[in-house]
Recover the amino acids of this structure.
């Protein structure tokens, strides 16, 4: 019930948790722990969340894990920038591909160099699309067809750092944190996998932290008080602001579950928000929120 959020359990990991994905009974978390850039949590009993013994991955380079993405039994872990020569699954990568078919034993099956921070990851058509802070390559496409030789096949330069990426069918939606008068919302045609063909873009006037889409709408979390915005995309390639919501602070992360938008925001009174569609169509409102304060 989105309108009745209840805390079932919590966990003090003792270090910073950077990004989270869940599948089945397990939660996978990117962290800043030098020997546990990925940890696995068992939530089969939601009132007793516990670390999975052995369910960790050490990226060897010691750089923080900052992003995670799931695709079936594969988990994609992004880290901060590493330096030096790359050796598959052993050193100096920023993108790791892990086999999580056994959650208690995440196993690296491939890795690749992004060149800077892998801020966010989306996977489609055997390619990874990575948002980075690398100048001239803020949006990077990487070929996953040979996991022993993951390579960059295309890049696109955005003003500011690439922050969020999301794939819907043959469209890649991306946001950057420019925050000035430059465009910061980008839609690419990726019908040719690995090719970043810019389809259209928009200056939202703010830093775009995360982006998602159902094809007809584009959902954006950003740096301002009305940090959740919905854009109409039915008149493709035209992008038109449809609705916004005052979140009382920036919203740095967002997930769309097919119906509702889940936001993590900076406001002390509502750090977690659930926003859902309403009647009449194309209107949105808060259905629930949660705070520990």
């Amino acid at each position: 019930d989105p309108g009745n959020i209840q805390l079932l359990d919590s966990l003090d990991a003792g270090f910073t948790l950077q990004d989270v994905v869940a599948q089945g009974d397990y939660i996978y978390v990117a962290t800043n722990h030098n020997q546990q850039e990925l940890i696995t949590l068992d939530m089969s009993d939601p009132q007793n969340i516990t670390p999975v013994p052995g369910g960790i991955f050490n990226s060897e380079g010691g750089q923080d894990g900052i992003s995670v993405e799931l695709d079936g039994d594969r988990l994609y872990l992004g880290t901060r920038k590493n330096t030096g020569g790359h050796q598959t699954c052993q050193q100096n990568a920023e993108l790791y591909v892990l086999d999580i078919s056994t959650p208690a034993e995440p196993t690296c099956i491939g890795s690749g160099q992004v060149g800077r921070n892998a801020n966010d990851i989306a996977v489609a058509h055997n390619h990874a699309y990575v948002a980075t802070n690398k100048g001239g390559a803020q949006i990077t496409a990487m070929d996953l067809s040979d996991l022993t030789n993951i390579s960059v096949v295309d890049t696109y330069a955005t003003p500011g750092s690439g922050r969020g990426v999301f794939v819907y069918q043959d469209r890649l939606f991306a946001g950057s944190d420019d925050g000035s008068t430059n465009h910061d919302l980008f839609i690419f045609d990726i019908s040719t996998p690995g090719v970043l063909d810019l389809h259209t873009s928009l200056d939202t006037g703010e830093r775009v932290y995360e982006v998602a889409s159902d094809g007809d709408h584009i959902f954006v979390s950003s740096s301002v008080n009305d940090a959740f915005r919905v854009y109409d995309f039915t008149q493709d390639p035209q992008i038109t602001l449809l609705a916004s919501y005052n979140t009382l602070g920036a919203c740095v992360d967002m997930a769309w579950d097919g119906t509702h938008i889940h936001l993590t925001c900076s406001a002390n009174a509502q750090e977690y928000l659930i926003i859902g569609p309403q009647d009449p169509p194309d209107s949105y409102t808060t259905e629930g929120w949660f705070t520990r304060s």
Q: What stands out?
A: The chain has a mean pLDDT of 91. Residues 119 and 257 are 21 Å apart (CA to CA).
